Amino acid sequence: MTLNERAARLCQTLPPRVSEERLAGARVLDAGIAAPGGLEAGLWLARLCMADAAQVSWTRGEAGLGVLVASDEPVAACMAAQYAGWQVSVGSYFAMGSGPMRAAYGQEALFEEIGFRESPPVAVGVLETRKLPTAEVVAYLAERTRLAPEALTLAVAPACSLAGTVQVVARALETALHKLHEWKFDLAQVVSGVGYAPVPPVGKDDLQAIGWTNDAILYGGIVDLWVRADDDVLTTLGPRVPASSSAMYGAPFAEIFRAAGGDFYKIDPLLFSPAVVRFINLASGRRHTFGQLDPDVLERSFAGSSAAGRSLR
Question: CATH for 1-54+76-157, among 3.60.9.10, 3.10.340.11, 2.60.40.10, 3.30.70.100?
Answer without folding.
Answer: 3.10.340.11
